[in-house]
């Protein structure tokens, strides 16, 4: 059986996707480049040749996550440039638990100056995107992000989403109607 040869760009995308999977599970400190290499089906030296360090690989995974959220917001705004439209689009992303966990691990690793600067820049980019696409006020954007962070945490804890566990009284109250929403 012959192997399909990937272009350098396709191989890099494959490695970033594997990195999101690995880092979303083990976090920055708990994930090795060897784990990412195994997930991608390549050698660990190949990962280092492309990304040089685990930190650069983690930053690429964070960039991928932010880019995907940004593209999701932009596509929603093409249909309807309102906060509810963008919120619904983000809600659909919550079904991709790896992305939510990657965000949270990025926030947690922000103590490292290089990672923190990158994560803050990405978060700021999303804030600017929301403001530009919808024309919302800073207060409306703050409420939107506050609700988004709650949803991110609830999805990561499996309170809402396709892998949700049975709700406890506190989680049912906090989740409100979210468990009734459809996840893709």
From TrEMBL:
GO terms for molecular function: DNA-binding transcription factor activity; transcription cis-regulatory region binding. SUPFAM superfamilies: Homeodomain-like. It holds the Pfam family TetR_N. Residues 32-51 bind DNA. Residues 9-69 form the HTH tetR-type domain. InterPro entries: Homeodomain-like_sf (IPR009057), HTH-type_TetR-like_transc_reg (IPR050109), HTH_TetR (IPR001647). Keywords: DNA-binding. This is Regulatory protein, tetR family. The lineage of its organism: Bacteria, Bacillati, Actinomycetota, Actinomycetes, Micromonosporales.
